[in-house]
Each structure stands twice: as structure tokens, then as C-alpha cells.
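Input sequence (139 aa), recorded before submission:
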Amino acid sequence: MLTAEQREKIKYLNQYRYTNAEIDRKIKCLEDCKSKIFNVTGTLTDMPKSKNRSNTIEDGIASIDEIEQTINQDIDKLLETRKDIENKIDAIIDLKLREIMKCRYLDCKTWEEIAYKNNITWQWVYKLHEKALNIIYIS
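Predicted structure, C-alpha cell format:
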């Protein structure tokens, strides 16, 4: 059973994973917006042109620019978060514990993937993870 302190450490260490997932969502949204805006096809007609279509494209491009700016800000935050978490994990002297923590919190691997990669059972991964949580210092 995890202690409250260990749960707080896990919450802190998971920041990288959640920020990364949020950026992925924004990038998907950006791609969807670009697809909708730039895949507009014209039709040949002798009817007068509407200025409405032009405004829609301009508004869409402005939206794309805003999304790109927020993605860039999020990426800056992600890099800072990763560096901070990496420094805290690198402070763990035991190489096996450090590897488990990096796999989990920086590579975003599942417990099963970590167990397979390190040739140990997932139950043992949990125990080593708990041990690493007790060692790691988060202010």
C-alpha cells in the first residue's frame, strides 16, 4: 500500500506524461483544423463570389496560429518538467531503480513493458518502484 507521500511523488512524476498527452491532443486538433481549412475546394460557377469564404479561411488561419503558440508554450513547459524530473531520478544511485523510474516516468512505459524490458516480474517492478519512491526527493 502506498503512503500519502509516495502518492504525492507519483503525482509529481506523472506531470511529464500528462503534459505530453495534452500536447499530443493539441497537435491532433491542429492537424484537424488544418485539414478542414486547407482542403476547401473551389467550384466553378458564374455566380458572384462570396467574401464569407475568404473570412472563414482567414479566421481558420488565425485559429491555427493560436493553437501553434499554445503548443510551443506547452512544449517549453514539457522540456522544463522533463529536465526537472530527470534530475530527480538521476539522483537515485541504484541503477536498476533509476532505470525503472526512467522507463515509467520519462519513457511512459507500462508496468508490463518495464518488467519485460528488465527481465523481472511485474510484481517485482512494483516493489522496486516503491523502494525508488522512498529514495527520491521531491521538494
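Checked by second reader. The chain is about 75% helix and 0% strand.
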